[in-house]
Amino acid sequence: MVTTRKSAKLSKWERLPVELQQQVLESLDNFDRLQIRQVSKGMLSVSENIPIVTHSIHFLTTLKKRYSWLEWTDQEGQRYKTNQEECKKENNGNLAVKSFLNFFACRFSKVTYLKIDKIFKTQNGLNTIEKIIAEAQARNIRIRAEELCLELLEATAAPLVKQFFELFDGSVLKTLRLVDSPGNVVDAITGTEQFRSCSRLSICRTDRSTRQHYNLRNLLHIENLFITRDQYTAQDLFDLVHSYRLKPLKKGNIRQLHDTTKSATEEEISNVLDTFPRGPGTPLPYSYRRNHYRVIDMADPGLQLNLSTSHRSVLLVLETMVTTRKSAKLSKWERLPVELQQQVLGSLDNLDRLQIRQVSKDMMSVSETIPIVTHSIHFLTTPKNKYSWLNWTDKEGQRSITNRKECRNEKNGSVAVKSLLNFFACRSSKVTHLEIDNIFKTQDGLNTVEEIIAEAQAKNIRIRAEEVHLDVFEATSAPLVKQFFELFDADVLKTLRLVDSPGNVVDAISETEQFRSCSKLLCTAHYDSTPQHFSLRNMLHFEDLRIRRDHYTAQDVFDLVQSYRLKSLKKGDRIQLFNTTKAATEEEISNLLDAFPTEPNPRPPYYERIDIRVIYMADPELQLVVDTCERFLSIWVAERRPLPAFFLQQY
């Protein structure tokens, strides 16, 4: 590798005025500034006043080879730098300490995330911490990190951790994460200015660590608190709830104590919580409900405090979440004029309008005239749990909502039916892709279909979907599928996809207006399903037809070709019958196709087969290619091109 001599570089650089050097350094990105600082002491002094803001710094220590090093990552998370090789050669920790403190030499430099890994678990690491403390105090350096993660040991000296923690800038530090921290260490740092400035605290412990008791009274100022493997009392629980009730909090603030043990009975805890006024409030979602669940009033009348506890043998999970009280919202909303409510709802996106409709009957009546246009609706049914639910996805395919939890709790299908039909209550609402999955394969699903038909006919609701995907079953009742299919709006429906559909079902729906309005039909089947015979004469109006596992005759092929020749089609339109069986020989099919005027096969010699023929169409610019292979039939429209002379010589 060719490198420039370092002294030659510096000699030119040092002749520049200091102000010009600083201007050049300010034009560099954060990583280049970081590398410049490590060139020489002169570079460090020039760049000390130029801030560096990076995403993360990882301070690591090896347990075996006994040296420390740093890893830096930029704000985009794409660039990465480490000094592991240099620190491995030096092997006394001084280089890692200098690199770490030189980063914070400028008072404006800061890092978003700082992780101190395993440094408290070895004697060499503890020596490195002592060096950091001594040098930082001597140079009056503050460590400016928004989030700090410390990996400790149960035998870690609390005074040493406190001294190190006091090096941080309390005005910058907001989040503290402690791993395997003993209770005495947490008690030691709770008195510091840095700890009081934190709004988020996470204390997690590995499975092998012993349970610790943390004095929760020192943690009451924390807005978001997460602790695992804790041991708490009834008084601790009282203090947490009491402090939360009086705080100026916002929706979503949470405190969680996971995998805990308690030194109080359920009765003692219940007696303590009974001192707080209960609120009616909206209950939490089903996933948050535990054996002991209650809603407590807050000082702010617009909020409520949800408290739930669960006891699994010796484990207890406590979650307290602040949520907005539903009644307070609706009382203000209902005082608005209906016209203003409709203007507000009209400004929302489609999925928000959909969620608004499901709040109450009044919301439904107000929003009935506001259309919803979404990309897809997926109507699902579980064969085992015997309930149906819906998934909605927006036009961009990035947002989705589901009502699975509500339908699982109700379990009789009525919520799923109402949600589907409420979507189409407005005559302007429509969906691009509607998929009905497994609903025809169980008795509960068939009951749900009958309920959809009855309610849609009673309310005169049409299902407006451009594309419908029906997962049918071989034993499905054809009249039931026909009744359901007649609910669709024929002016909107363009594409129909059928899975495992028997021939009698297709024959039944082929009589409907909806079937005749479709321009594209796809009939697919699983590999183990029996081939079906579809009456292809009912499908001659389709521009795009694809069928798998069909059983067809020579007359069916003749009818398809005859109808396609006379249609006003475009290049690319096709009919495909895959994995089929024939009730005719190749000779019978060939004799019928001889009735059509053909032109020489345009295929190259290596692809030439006797079962491919090109037929003239009514449009002189197009030609119809018919391929009758043993396992499939394919008919497609191609653009007519002049044939080369060497093709014509073959005939």
UniProtKB/TrEMBL annotation:
InterPro entries: DUF38/FTH_CAE_spp (IPR002900), F-box-like_dom_sf (IPR036047), F-box_dom (IPR001810), FB224 (IPR040161). SUPFAM superfamilies: F-box domain. It holds the Pfam family FTH. This is F-box domain-containing protein. Residues 16-56, 336-376 form the F-box domain. It comes from Caenorhabditis latens. GO terms for biological process: innate immune response. Transmembrane segments: none annotated. The lineage of its organism: Eukaryota, Metazoa, Ecdysozoa, Nematoda, Chromadorea.
